[in-house]
Write a structure and sequence with these properties.
- By secondary structure, this protein is an alpha/beta fold.
- It has a domain of 188 residues: Rossmann fold.
- Helix content is 40%, strand content 17%.
- It contains 12 helices and 8 strands.
- The protein has an 8-stranded mixed sheet.
- Helix 4 packs antiparallel against helix 5.
- The chain is globular.
C-alpha cells in the first residue's frame, strides 16, 4: 500500500490564502473533492486516507470557508462564478490538467463551471447531493426562492435560519434512523463557523447568487448530454435535502446505464474495476 498521509497546506491564489488537503501519489489519477455549504475540506477527512493509495486527492477550501481567507463582501465578490475561478486557478497551480470531480452540494455549481470551462480535463464526475435540475429544488427552497426575488423583504428570515443551531443540526441529522451515530462535533463546529464575525454576510451573498445556478441548469445538462462523462451518483437511503427525482434526472441526462450507485461506502464503490449496479 502506498503512502496515505494527508498533507495540510496553504497556497496563494489570486492574492488569497487558500487552504487545501492533499494526499496520494501525483502520478495516480487525480480526484478533486469539492465541498458543500457551509463546510470545508474537513468533510472529507475520513474519505481522503481511504482513497490515497489509489488516487491523488486535492480538497481545497473555497474563499470564505474553512481555513481559507474570508475577505468581507465589500472587497471580494462572493459569487459562484468567482469561487469557480479561484478553484480553477488553484488547480492550474497544482498542475492538475486531468481529473475527476467530486461534487457535493456547493461543489456542484463550482464543479459544473469547471467542466464547462475545461471539458477536456474532466475524466469523470461523482455527484453527491449536487443539483443540476430544477427537480432537485424541493419545497425547502421556497424561502430561498423568495429571497432571490426580493432580498430586502426576505433577508431577515434567511439570516435567522442561518443562525439557527437547530437548522444547523438538521443539515446533518436529517431523517437518519440512527442520529446517535452522528458525531455532534460536526454540527457544533459548523455552527461555530457560521457564528464567526462577518460569516453570515458572506453566506448571504452566496445564497442570493445561488439563483445563477438555477439559471445555468440547462447548460449543465447540455454538457452532460454532449460530453457524457462517466458519472457516479451517490446518496444515502435517508438523504433528505435533494428529492430522489433529481438523482434520476441526472442519470437520464448522462444516459449511462451504470451511472447510479446507491451506497454508504464511497471508497468501496470507487475501487478500480468495480461496477455500480444497474
Amino acid at each position: 500500500m502506498g503512502d496515505t498521509t494527508v498533507r495540510h497546506r496553504t497556497v496563494a491564489v489570486d492574492g488569497l490564502n487558500i487552504f487545501y488537503r492533499e494526499a496520494g501519489d501525483a502520478r495516480n489519477p487525480t480526484l478533486v473533492l469539492l465541498h458543500g455549504f457551509p463546510s470545508s475540506s474537513v468533510m472529507f477527512r475520513e474519505l481522503i486516507p481511504r482513497l490515497a493509495d489509489r488516487f491523488h486527492l486535492l480538497a481545497p477550501d473555497y474563499p470564505g470557508f474553512g481555513r481559507s481567507d474570508a475577505p468581507a463582501p465589500d472587497v471580494f465578490r462572493y459569487t459562484f462564478d468567482h469561487l469557480a475561478e479561484i478553484v480553477d486557478h488553484f488547480l492550474e497551480q497544482q498542475r492538475a490538467d486531468r481529473y475527476t470531480l467530486y461534487l457535493q452540494d456547493y461543489g456542484g455549481p463550482i464543479g459544473f463551471r469547471l467542466a464547462l470551462a475545461h471539458p477536456e480535463r474532466v475524466q469523470a464526475l461523482i455527484v453527491q447531493n449536487a443539483v443540476a435540475h430544477a427537480q432537485g429544488l424541493s419545497d425547502l427552497w421556497a424561502p430561498r426562492r423568495a429571497f432571490w426575488a426580493d432580498r430586502v423583504a426576505h433577508e431577515a428570515a434567511v439570516r435567522a435560519n442561518l443562525l439557527s443551531f437547530e437548522a444547523t443540526r438538521q443539515r446533518h441529522v436529517g431523517k437518519s434512523p440512527h442520529p446517535e451515530r452522528i458525531d455532534p462535533e460536526t454540527w457544533e463546529s459548523e455552527y461555530a463557523f457560521l457564528s464567526r464575525p462577518g460569516m453570515i454576510d458572506i453566506q448571504l451573498e452566496l445564497f442570493h447568487d445561488y439563483r445563477s445556478n438555477a439559471a445555468s441548469y440547462a447548460r449543465w445538462q447540455a454538457y452532460l448530454r454532449q460530453h457524457q462523462p462517466p458519472t457516479l451518483v451517490v446518496w444515502g437511503s435517508t438523504t433528505f435535502r435533494s428529492p430522489s427525482p433529481a438523482r434520476w434526472h441526472t442519470a437520464r441526462t448522462c444516459r449511462r446505464p451504470r451511472c447510479i450507485c446507491w451506497t454508504r461506502d464511497i471508497s468501496r464503490s470507487m475501487r478500480p474495476g468495480r461496477r455500480s449496479p444497474n
